[in-house]
Amino acid sequence: MEQALSVEILVQTLLSGVLIGLVYALVAVGLTLIFGVMDIVNFAHGEFLMLGMYASFWGWALFRLDPVVTLPLTAVLLFAFGAAVYRLVIRRIIAAPMLSQIFTTFGLMILLRGAAQYLWKPDFRSVESTIVSGRVTLLGLPFGLPQVVAAAGAVLTTAGVWWFMRSTRTGAALEATAADKEAAALMGIDAQRMFAIAWGIGAACAGVAGALLATYFPVFPEVGANFILIAFVLVALGGFGSVIGALWAGILVGVVEVLGGFLVGPAYKLVLVLALYLVVVWLRPHGLMGRA
Amino acid sequence: MNRALVSLLALSLSLGSSTPAAAQEEIRIGVLYPLTGAAASTGLELKNAAELAAEIVNADMKDLPLPLAPGVGLPNLKNAKVKLVFADHQGNPQVGASEAERLITQEKVVAILGCYFSAVTATASQVAERQGVPFLNADSTSSTLTQRGFKWFFRTTPHDELFVHNFFAFLKDVAAKKKIQVKTLAVLNENTLWGVETAKLEEKLAGEQGYKLTEKILYPAKSTQLTSEVQRIKGASADVVMQSSYLGDAILAMKTYKDLGYTPAAILANDAGFNDSEFLKTLGKDGEYILSREVWALDLAAQKPLIKRVNDMLQERYKVNFNGNSARAFTGILTLADAINRAGSTKPEAIQKALRETNIPGDKLIMPWDGIQFDETGQNKLGAGIIVQVQQGKYVTVWPFKLASKDIVWPMPPWSKR
User: Fold this and answer.
1) How many CB pairs under 8 A join A and B?
2) What are phi and psi of A273, to 5 degrees?
3) What is the mean pLDDT of residues B89-102?
4) B165-177 b/e with 16+ CB inside 10 Å = b?
5) CB within 8 Å: B237 and A3
6) A61-66 contacts: CB < 8 A, separation 24 or more?
């Protein structure tokens, strides 16, 4: 191990953590948005990610279209899917007890997984080659190009969502609805429309993350489970409803997982992440950037 | 009332007398496999292979050097023919147990072959043990199955522990015949029961045989990244990385090796993800030179012409090639038929005794084994795995050296020189 502990390896490991952390952040942004606007925990969020990956996979398998090329389409598809899920399912349980809401989104998770298994078989599939395959050198260190592109795409998308919330009328309306549904309605904001948009954007974020991941990660019906636990940690860590909080939490968790796993031992990488989570929520119950 | 009694008596008589009469011409063997459910396609392959084995036993195939191929049926049982009674356990241990019960009590089979999944084999063989009926397992590799002290359970396939022993036999052979000295090993295994148990045994054997284990990593198979693992492995700079991974993590590990520019002299993989058809499809050229253990390979036919002949028969009937699973099911039926024939009886005790005395030489098998002889736990002690290497996009047999179809490439070339 002595020879391994060079500065180079530490920097490379640290940056690898940042890269995967940015993708975690994008998954969490969708989740935190839905929660922030309407206080519903979407357990099916990992399945939105899975659908985004399958959309990319099929685009490639059937039409030889690169996941990066079809990314905007994947985003639109997932937006429509998220909004439809809201209209058909979630709308009916807004006023229901929290337990019913949990069961509904949990049931949706099982339904989507089952449907994917039924329609596309439980096999692992992969996009075998993409325009971003290969390696790239950053700061004199080698990195996988797909990981770098995925991280860059995640940052751009997260920034886009943040800008949208900050600088557009619809974004402001979303924020207003999140702050006070009744007051927003009195101001003439159509809450139903806002909720549908929140679900659409939330699903689209997961879809974009899925498309970016599809360039190097295998696709299978349970793939969402790999990412969703970390996404939940980020939402709580960053502060419920906070886009920027999710971004910082993503970077932090990615670095703790990869660098901590390297230094302490890979068997403990998730233990470290969850320990960090416990410490933060103990010191700051509302998360790093959450509103009390 | 009288008439009813008479007819009942007649019925019981006819039932009683029909069983031995039927046994003269037909020996019923129960075959319990997943014929529906997620593993249905594997179940069908196993079923086809078993059918072919029964056909070879029943028909007169004079020049085929397999047990019971020459002559019709089982000669010691008045040329009685073997009849396979198939049952479906759907991959479910409970269904497996109840179907085993049904095969024994209602279908009156003299022995059972099954069940592919270790978990189902465990429950179904329990029923056979209780009923005192021989149970032959040809394809479940959990080591624990033969550690239960069962008297009616026999297993022809090598189990997981034997495969790990094979790795070390391979390393020894590489040193002796290829003059390649491996000194250091690193273990990278996923952290469920399989990976953990394998890692323990690898660590033990490495210590016993004088290899230095420079790193042992157990990682969660559902990892989203394996950077920390690969960095550690890289830092340990071992000659050989022994790896037990499922498909998703095997692919992710290979991509991470490449991204971080890491190549040991050899990656010795433990089947599973590395032998999945999706592995090479996804990685293409990046999967080259991986060494992995296998139970069987079609290119063994190069050294064993018998394999090609039997494979041609399977091709002709079902338009598929043999694979490790179907070849083992095929061998299972032949082993059972051989024992029943030597028993010269359908009595369970006689078959059990004959199974214990089984001695089929390796040249009468389509497997890369030295033969079939059971030890006191019911485990075939002459079984062995093979080691294949990915060369030009194909898995070719490179060890044991006498069965190899291609020479081993060692060390694997670094990424920068591919």
Assistant:
1) 102
2) -60, -45
3) 95
4) ebbbbbbeebeee
5) yes
6) A61/A125, A61/A127, A66/A130, A66/A131
Q: What does the alpha-carbon distance between residue B198 and residue B192 come to, in Å, rounded to a whole number? A: 10
* Per-position pLDDT tens, chain A of length 292: 444 468 888 999 999 999 999 999 999 999 999 998 888 999 999 999 999 999 999 999 999 999 999 999 999 999 999 999 999 999 999 889 999 999 999 999 999 999 999 999 888 888 988 898 888 888 888 899 999 999 999 999 999 999 999 999 999 999 899 888 888 888 899 989 999 999 999 999 999 999 999 999 999 999 999 899 999 999 999 988 889 999 999 999 999 999 999 999 888 999 999 999 999 989 988 888 876 5
Judged against a pLDDT cut of 90, whether residue B23 lies above it is answered with no
Q: Which residues in B lie closer than 8 A to residue A258 (C-beta atoms)?
A: 225, 227-228
From the list B259, B281, B284, the residue facing A144 with the nearest CB is: B259
For residue A123, which amino acid is it? D
Nearest by Cα to B23 from B344, B356, B355, B354: B344
Here the contacts of A52-55 (C-beta below 8 Å, separation 24 or greater) are A52/A78, A52/A206, A52/A207, A52/A208, A52/A209, A52/A210, A52/A211, A52/A214, A53/A210, A53/A211, A53/A213, A53/A214, A53/A217, A53/A219, A53/A223, A54/A116, A54/A120, A54/A210, A54/A219, A55/A207, A55/A210, A55/A211
Report helix, strand or coil for B399: strand
Residues 6+ apart with CB under 8 A from A10: A259
This complex has an ipTM of 0.85
* pTM (two decimals): 0.82
Q: Pick from A228, A209, A19, A234: which is nearest to A105 by CA? A: A228
Name the residue with tokens 């959309």: A55
Residue of B nearest to A220 (CA): B248
Smallest CA-to-CA distance from B412 within B272, B288, B278, B285 is with: B288
Contacts of B416 (CB under 8 A, 6+ apart): B261
The CA distances from residue A28 to A33, A47, A171, A227, in Å, are 8, 13, 18, 9
β pairing state of B212-219 and B266-269: unpaired
Nearest to A246 by CA among A35, A37, A26, A16: A26
Yes or no: say if B227 and B256 are a contact pair by the CB < 8 Å rule. yes
Would you report the helix, strand and coil content of chain A in percent, each value rounded to 5? Answer: 75, 5, 25
Could you give phi then psi for residue A18, rounded to 5 degrees?
-65, -45
Chain B residues in contact with A261 by the CB 8 A cut-off are: 227-229
C-alpha angle with apex A45: A43 to A51, nearest 5 degrees?
Answer: 135
Residue B274 has pLDDT above 90, yes or no: yes
Sheet holding B111-114, edge to edge: B81-88, B26-33, B111-114, B135-137, B153-155
Strand B212-219, strand B135-137: pairing: unpaired
Q: Which residues of B touch A253 (CB under 8 A)?
A: none
Shortest CB distance from B278 goes to which of A3, A17, A126?
Answer: A126
DSSP characters over A44-100: THHHHHHHHHHHHHHHHHHH---TTTSHHHHHHHHHHHHHHHHHHTGGGGTTS-HHH
Q: Which phi and psi (to 5°) does residue A261 adopt?
A: -60, -40
The pLDDT, as a whole number, for residue B13 is: 45
For chain B, the residue count is 418
Q: Which residues pair with B154 in a beta bridge?
A: B136
Question: Quick one: pLDDT at residue B38?
Answer: 77
pLDDT at B194 over 90: no
User: Are B155 and B137 a contacting pair, CB within 8 Å?
Assistant: yes
Predicted confidence (pLDDT) at residue B19 exceeds the cutoff of 50: no
Q: What burial class does residue B85 get, using C-beta atoms within 10 Å of its C-beta: 0-12 exposed, 13-18 middle, 19+ buried?
A: middle
HSE-up of residue A156 (Cα within 13 Å, Cβ side): 11
pLDDT at residue A1, as a whole number: 41
